[in-house]
Amino acid sequence: MVTAHSILHKFWGYQQFRPLQEDIIASIAAGRDTLALLPTGGGKSVCFQVPAMMQEGLCLVVTPLIALMKDQVENLNKRGIPAFAIYAGMQTRDVEKVLALAREGDIKFLYVSPERLQSKRFQWYCEVLPVRLIAVDEAHCISQWGYDFRPAYRQIATIREHFPSAPILALTATATPKVREDICRQLQLRNPAVFVKSFARANLSYSVVEEEGKPARMKQILDKVPGSAVIYCRNRRQTKEIAALLGAQGISASYYHAGLTSAERTARQEAWINNETRVMVCTNAFGMGIDKPDVRMVIHADVPDSLEAYYQEAGRAGRDEEKAYAVMLYNHRNLEELKARIPLQFPAMEEIRAIYQAVVNYLQVPVGAEGVYYDFDINDFVKRFGVNITLAFSTLRILEQEGVWQLSESVYIPSKVEFATSRDVLFEYEDRQPDLSPLIQALLRTYQGIFDNPVPVFEKQIARIMRVGEEDVAHDLQLLHKQAIIRYYPKKDQPQLCFLEERLPAQHLRVNMVLLEQRKKALEERIAAITAYARNNNQCRTQQLVAYFGEKDAQPCGVCDVCVKKEKGGLQSKEFGRLTTAIMAALNGKISLQALMEKVDAEESRVLETLQFLVAEGFVLRDEDGMLSATA
Ligand code: ADP
């Protein structure tokens, strides 16, 4: 019989399920809508992959990050499972191929980005796709109360109408009770089963330190706790500076942010994963999809803008269940800055229009353009137009949420070539341009079918075959393109901005300001929550964190800064108890202070301190001559 267990063993080689995985799988296998909250690294994918493998039909997986989507597809393919992905930025023809395969039942898992659900082609295919299960990863993105709202997620519920009998599994690592409710409502889950793994992490010690001299403190912390570490910073410049400072003090450190080329990012990430670099100083662009078990320390050099983000990032420490530390360094100014960002994150209509205008000028988008992709380097944009970067980001996000455009992370799209002439014209051209003939021949020989279809080509490969430089190949391909012999689409490896709607004159741009106002309030609440966390050094950190995620009855963790401080206080109070007993026993009738001191075996100042308390509380009497006695 095919059991969940046998599937797990056969395809993944794992012996047993992790906590809750089996319950979630059983719920899905029984056809019930399910919401599951598992921490990052808790093994969410298995929760939909195993039940999908237990039955016929297709599992549709909605997930927002293209890079992670590709990872998962690769991972499944490695295990011999047919899985494909479609996402924004893919050529229509490729999308069509994948959807056709899916319709034929030749695919087990189809990963789609939420934006794709909106496309007419996809909607049309929905009629014929054999979908038996819908998995929604990062389900908190559907809620405008959450910290990562993505409006395209709202389309998921409409997709469901096509597959009324397929259960939905909504998965997330962080969601407050309010966001959970919103997920169930927005996805129209029917009587959902809800599984929540506790947010408490017994091996992780949280601390918060108010500190002005942060670099020195970081060095001190890293000296105390050996092993792999991550330092999260707010901006790119800081990552570089802090890595250099640590390096100068003999700590092996490197830095990472989204502004580096993908080759640099991969190299640095690998060096850190292989423990060749000890400390990775980074922005929040680092860490997604990385499953390094032995991170001993995560330091936040600044205050993140939500407890959700903090919990996720700090949670990258100690995945191996061994002791690990998460330290947040902050100062008064950081908290002020967080607050000051609120109006930048929710600009007025006029500011939104001005930035929209600047973007279309920057990219030179003609009025009326629609469905067009542009390479978009936001840093270059803000530099050239003198725009505040936070304001630019927020406006991009807001207009993305309004469906005006879509900003996608760096996507690698290989170069493509297709021929644009008849064979006769081509022969004639080769006669006229003998210099370019070898390149044309290399294309025709290396890439089958290139004469009839656009085909991905690799400049490097052609360069190797022709024994020339890669740059020369690219240059000559451009030349052939200009002369209308081929159509050459150079590779892209940059964030893309795609205009989903017709590009409007800025004054016609409309934004739902009421909705924006509500979201601003949600942000204010999130910032208030993390500010309270930073300032509250009286309640166990784990208790504070998990309460935010809805667990009100957690025990003190015993390992955070607050618990450790109380523990020390607790030792003192034990000593206080011992001294009280000793003093009261010594007060047999009236005795002098000196006699008492001789009888009680402890440091004099401690005895005096305790005695003072006992007198003040009326347990001990001191008469006019200074003689001590117990009150009756
Ligand atoms: P999440 O999406 O919750 O962050 P993943 O699904 O990526 O986590 O899983 C994290 C890692 O744990 C993956 O390498 C996965 O293969 C592994 N894993 C999942 N379930 C099990 C299991 N039952 N036993 C051992 N490893 C598992």
TrEMBL record:
<dbReference type="Pfam" id="PF16124">
    <property type="entry name" value="RecQ_Zn_bind"/>
</dbReference>
<protein>
    <recommendedName>
        <fullName>ATP-dependent DNA helicase RecQ</fullName>
        <ecNumber>5.6.2.4</ecNumber>
    </recommendedName>
</protein>
<dbReference type="GO" id="GO:0004386">
    <property type="term" value="F:helicase activity"/>
</dbReference>
<feature type="domain" description="Helicase C-terminal">
    <location>
        <begin position="217"/>
        <end position="367"/>
    </location>
</feature>
<keyword id="KW-0479">Metal-binding</keyword>
<keyword id="KW-0238">DNA-binding</keyword>
<feature type="domain" description="Helicase ATP-binding">
    <location>
        <begin position="25"/>
        <end position="193"/>
    </location>
</feature>
<keyword id="KW-0175">Coiled coil</keyword>
<feature type="coiled-coil region">
    <location>
        <begin position="506"/>
        <end position="533"/>
    </location>
</feature>
<dbReference type="InterPro" id="IPR027417">
    <property type="entry name" value="P-loop_NTPase"/>
</dbReference>
<keyword id="KW-0413">Isomerase</keyword>
<dbReference type="Pfam" id="PF00270">
    <property type="entry name" value="DEAD"/>
</dbReference>
<dbReference type="InterPro" id="IPR036388">
    <property type="entry name" value="WH-like_DNA-bd_sf"/>
</dbReference>
<keyword id="KW-0347">Helicase</keyword>
<dbReference type="InterPro" id="IPR001650">
    <property type="entry name" value="Helicase_C-like"/>
</dbReference>
<keyword id="KW-0378">Hydrolase</keyword>
<dbReference type="InterPro" id="IPR032284">
    <property type="entry name" value="RecQ_Zn-bd"/>
</dbReference>
<dbReference type="InterPro" id="IPR004589">
    <property type="entry name" value="DNA_helicase_ATP-dep_RecQ"/>
</dbReference>
<dbReference type="InterPro" id="IPR011545">
    <property type="entry name" value="DEAD/DEAH_box_helicase_dom"/>
</dbReference>
<comment type="similarity">
    <text>Belongs to the helicase family. RecQ subfamily.</text>
</comment>
<keyword id="KW-0547">Nucleotide-binding</keyword>
<dbReference type="InterPro" id="IPR014001">
    <property type="entry name" value="Helicase_ATP-bd"/>
</dbReference>
<dbReference type="Pfam" id="PF00271">
    <property type="entry name" value="Helicase_C"/>
</dbReference>
<keyword id="KW-0067">ATP-binding</keyword>
